Amino acid sequence: MGFPSVQSVLNTIISLFAVIVLGWWTRSRGLLPENVVSPLNRLVFYLAIPAMLFREIAGASFHAYFDPLLVLGTLLPPVIVFFAALGVGRLFRLTPERWGTFVQTSIHGNLGYMGLAVAFYALGKEGFARAGLLASFLILAQNFLAIVALQSLAGDTEKRWNLIFFLKTLLANPIVLTSLGAIAFSLAGLHLPGVVDRTLKILSGMALPLALLLIGASLSISPSMGGISLVGAISFLKLVLQPALGWMLFGLFDLDGACILPGIILLASPTATLSYVLAGEMGGDPSLASTAISVTTPVSGLTFVGWLVLLR
Question: Which among 68, 62, 65, 46 has a CA at the least distance from the CA of 185?
């Protein structure tokens, strides 16, 4: 896996965001109404993305792609940003609901839709396999931190430190379960039967294009953006500081070259749509989460280009 050229990076990111804009346009024209977007989101989240991940990770060599230092360098940045966001939230004197949401939207990246899409189209199948492997660990870490932030800070006292809700939210993620199953499959040295591989390939074909359309269809920036400084801080922490920390850690661990690109892409992913759901479920501020998603997603088009060109 080599470095993509500047032209390739620009072509990839512009193409991806063109599809996202198309999704927004189809929603505005009524071609993707809410009663269609929600079922399609579930279809992508529970079937198409898991099928693609399982096929790519299970078919790759775990030993060839797994590097403990690369995993560690990818997991530490959200932990550092978690504590940084706690401090920034205190400086802003946020209410508990906003504070918990501020922290979780600063660390919780959209890996399943945006991160993996950029890795696949910018880095190819090998880069996607590496990204999928890293994503399985990072999804666990960022969901854990997001739930901790909301359970410890948000106002819903009934769900503060509710262990059952915590485990259910953490382990019910189909991308996590699929990735862990695919890793076990790869470690066991098993091979997918031809008909299973072909079926997963067919399902995989709709995963990323449909995911990008749905991202666009879900974007909705409220006119009362309530706290532009907060959203600016979230964007900086999520899109700039977190991947910068990853870059520094990879250098500290003597990791360089194209092998670090999947980790940087995942760390630079915009705020996850799941953060809106968690904010609503756990007494956070869904409005702040929604705005953070809708702002960091288009801004990530610029930061993705910046990181991929900078690291060449």
Answer: 62
d(CA 306, CA 13): 11
CATH number, domain 6-303: 1.20.1530.20
Q: Which of 159, 142, 140 is nearest to 97 (CA)?
A: 159
Q: What values do phi and psi take at 271, rounded to 5?
A: -55, 135
Give per-residue pLDDT as tens, 60-90.
777 777 889 999 999 999 999 999 999 999 9
CA distance 30 to 254: 51
Q: What is the pLDDT of residues 157-192, one digit of tens each?
A: 555 556 666 666 667 778 778 878 888 888 888 888
Distance CA 234, CA 270 (A): 10
Quick one: CA dihedral 8, 10, 16, 22, positive or negative? negative
**H/E segment holding residue 277:** helix 274-281
Which residues lie across from 271 on neighbouring strands? 109
What is the C-alpha to C-alpha distance for residues 262 and 104, in angstroms, rounded to an integer?
22
